[in-house]
Amino acid sequence: MAALGEVLRVLAGLLAFLAVVALAYFASLGVGRLGAGAGGPLRIVGQLPLGPRRGLALVRMGDELLLLGVTDRQVTLLERVDEPERVARLDPPGGGGGQRFAELLGRRLAGKREEP
To answer: Distance of alpha carbon 26 from its chain centroid, rounded?
Structure first.
């Protein structure tokens, strides 16, 4: 009988631990949605890896787009786009801005200039 009580106590502890882990998981999902969700002030439009732990990110901040150089040690603002016409071309309302960004950047890096 004492063994059954010990098993029940271990199972109760395991269930309590799993409940805490589940609550922490769901709480972290909610925190992530607050700052960077679909309705949040910041949204990543596109990313382009340039090597190990290096890349470019196009981030929408309100009515502006920010082109950021990102490494494992720092983030550098490379360009700020705030003209509504250029913003709409790089991040159209229907989506697909990430693909358009990658195309424009690829052309520019290849030397084929196209003004966004």
So the answer is: 18
